Amino acid sequence: MFYQLMKHVLLGPLLRLLFRPRIEGLAHVPEEGAAIIAGNHLSFSDHFLMPVVLDRRITFLAKQEYFTGPGLRGRLTAAFFRAVGQIPVDRSGKGAGQAAIREGLGVLGRGELLGIYPEGTRSHDGRLYKGKVGVAVMALTAGVPVVPCAMVGTFEIQPPGKVVPRIRRVAIRFGEPLDFSRHAASAGEKAVVRAVTDEIMYEILRLSGQEYVDEYAAVVKAAEAEKAATGEGRTAREFPTGERRGRIRARRNHRTRQGPWT
Description:
By secondary structure, the protein is α/β, with parallel strands linked by helices. The chain contains nine helices and nine strands. Helices cover 44% and strands 14% of the residues.
């Protein structure tokens, strides 16, 4: 009830008015049945702008920190995320990944839309980072399609650390659903889930046009924070613009030629 009130009456109309989202490929989102919407994650605003343009309700796996923040702002944020049905996930500890997968499979088991950011965290510099394999595990286990999604312009309106977003137009692009049912029998193989994740990330890259970095965002953030503390430069393994698509495409195509994603 509160979700629909926020989307159609309170928050949704305001966001559409302010940011005038340009929507592309919305017809690719299934009208019914379980599916995963896998997107890049550039801004805190992503949590609000993507659901606003969807006809169906979507549930995100949200980091637990959104539910445990201090002060009035923290309590308001937690209340909002609970009210709209978002699920807190503890990202610390050895069982964090499995807990997120269990929660996600529960959403899909109810025939609903699940929103997930495969990078695992917001991009701190606007680039697209290596995806974690949880999205592939859920897609293969539940046997559901994955719709790639690209948020374009949200980093510019609200990069990490900026509380009040700038008012400017953004774009939200949805790609064709990806069907991985051909790999259902190999869902437990590491090479398969890695290859499926890479295919999803390639499609997000194709839609977003971002620069790709073949490292986990959290690892790069930690390394850069450490280097900043010691006064040294950045250490991320970057791909030049001309290579970023080719490397991930070549890896995907190589596995395809070698057989069942070996």
